[in-house]
Amino acid sequence: MPVMFGILIAVGYLGSPIMLIWGWARWANQARLRTVPSILSLTGFTLATASALLAVSSIAYALVIHGFRYYDPQLLRIFRWGILLSLSGIVFGIGGVWRPSSLRWHAPVSGACMLAFWIMAAAGE
Fold first, then answer.
1. Contact present, 78 and 54 (Cβ < 8 Å)
2. pLDDT tens figures, 73-98
């Protein structure tokens, strides 16, 4: 079981920022396709990014403004939204895997990395 948590920590805390930065840099430097799969990939990647922004903003809120109690209802809503955003990113990302695009694999992998982050955050609660 500790090995599983180690893998989730590595994927969630190291893999997600790497994939998000790499994906946005790749999207900015390559030609943008206007096909349905490329739009699905971009949508999935945007949802994974929104999940990451929710994570960063909730950590900043907890550190600067006020901390969360154990099983705080607001914190549980944040977990729920983060998990839903990352799962939506995975679903849309898988929809865009079928045709080549700049975010073809970045979208589902980023969503999966963010899902690992939210699982670890909820398990730490």
1. yes
2. 999 999 999 999 999 999 999 998 98
Q: How many CA atoms lie within 13 A of 96 on its CB side?
A: 31
Q: What gap in Å lies between CA 40 and CA 85, rounded to an integer?
A: 14
pTM of the model: 0.90
The first and second tokens of residue 21, run together, are 């930065």
Extract the tokens encoding 15. Answer: 């893999």
Distance CA 114, CA 14 (A): 10
Find where tokens 């939210």 sit: 118
Q: What residues contact 109, with CB distance under 8 A and at least 6 apart?
A: 15, 19, 93
